[in-house]
Amino acid sequence: MTSIKAFKMTLPPRTPGRKEVYNEQIAFILEKLSSDWDMKLSLPGETTPTISTETELGRKQKRCLGVVKFLTFKEKIAPVYLQFEMAASSIYNGWVTKPKGLLTSKYSCF
Amino acid sequence: MLLAYITGTLTSSIAVSGIPQRTENRPHHVTIYQREQLMDCFLEIADNTAKQIIVEDQATRSRGTRTFKTDRKIDEKDIDDTPIPINLPTPKRVGEQNELPQTIFKRPKVPHTDSTTSLEQQRGRPASNNTSFVSARNLSVAHSFVSSRQPSIFESGFGQENSQSSSTLTQITVPDDNAPDSSNYGSTPTGSFDHNVDAATFSFDGSTSFISVAKKEFSMPKVKSPDPAETALRESLCKVFRKFRENFHLQFTDNISSCLRCSIFT
């Protein structure tokens, strides 16, 4: 047994599989969302508690997790994140998009 | 000193990025209401893209470009999952295996009477009374050989110029009313065969009997006397064909020599 353990220790680390790569990507996206916009999203693990679905917020968090996983596996998460950043900045600043605002404004010189 | 160090690092960090280093990675301060709004916004965007992906997948599935395991019908089984019989056939011994072909494959019996009658009726002859099994088989073999072989131009009597018999003249000339079977045979070079073959020699024991059978069954009737006009016509035709053959031979040799030359120089 000791010899097998010693042999395993001497082996180089194996290349990460596809699942591990996707898990890393998912974890990175969730971390980015929670660090930038404080959405408190994280993969359920040993340290992090499971998300409770009793509250509305918990349900939304779980849905967000599922969607992030799906889009990561389909490799379409990057454009979604960019769109979300643009929309979130407008929500955070309190600005409302008014495409016809220029035409109705008093001070417009056009 | 410490204060100076802190202020120095802060100013340097501000100078580099414009934002203090500590506050750079700090998340936006978001209320619970705003968090919900952000989540709704993210879900809206993500759901739209997910729906688009699903629709594209369904479209490709309906087009048949992709095949999934779920698309397969239950009836179409790729794997033959019929149960294996418990008692498998045991391998037989060497002696039994040798006996198998003798028991299974029997020699087919040729209905000789029917074949002879039908063949002879086709030729316009009365059916022969030869009903031996061996002769019928020889006949079938000889018929298949002779009928499948079409004579070329050069074989049709011109190679046998010197040993011409009177019967070969009927091949070229206008069909004579006296010759009964000339119209059926056309230009087959069977006129030189001898008719007087004994029926007792019908035994398949070698090439001689085979030839004799062929002679017997496919021979042409002899013409009584050759016509001088026919002989003249035949000679002229012989000359023409001889010239043609010589020309053809020359052309063939020329072609071969030119090909060889090309191959040598290239």
Q: Which properties best describe this structure?
A:
heterodimer, A: 110 residues, mainly alpha, 5 helices, B: 266 residues, 9 helices, 54% helix
What topology emerges from the helices and strands here?
The complex is a heterodimer of chains A (110) and B (266).
Chain A: H1 2-10, H2 18-37, H3 56-73, H4 77-93, H5 101-104
Helix pairs in contact in A: 2-3
Chain B: H1 2-17, H2 21-24, H3 32-63, H4 94-104, H5 112-122, H6 133-148, H7 182-185, H8 207-218, H9 228-265
Helix pairs in contact in B: 5-6, 6-8
Question: What this model shows, in words?
Answer:
The complex is a heterodimer of chains A (110) and B (266). With 110 residues, chain A is an all-alpha fold. Chain A has helices at residues 2-10, 18-37, 56-73, 77-93, 101-104. Chain A has a domain at 2-77. The radius of gyration of chain A is 22 Å and the shape is elongated. Chain B has a domain at 112-258. Chain B has nine helices and no strands. The chains are: A mainly alpha (110), B mainly alpha (266). The interface between A and B is medium-sized, with 28 and 22 residues.
Summarize the structure.
Chain A is mainly alpha-helical. Chain A has five helices and no strands. Chain B is mainly α and 266 residues long.
| Poorly predicted regions of chain A | none
Per DSSP, the total helix count of chain B is 9
Oligomer kind: heterodimer
Radius of gyration of chain B: 48 Å
Percent of residues in β-strands of chain B:
under 5%
Strand coverage percent of chain A: under 5%
Mean model confidence by pLDDT of chain A: 78
Distance between the termini of chain B: 94 Å
Global morphology of chain A: elongated
Q: Strand pairing plus helix content of chain A: what structural class?
A: mainly alpha
Estimate the helix proportion of chain A, in percent.
55-70%
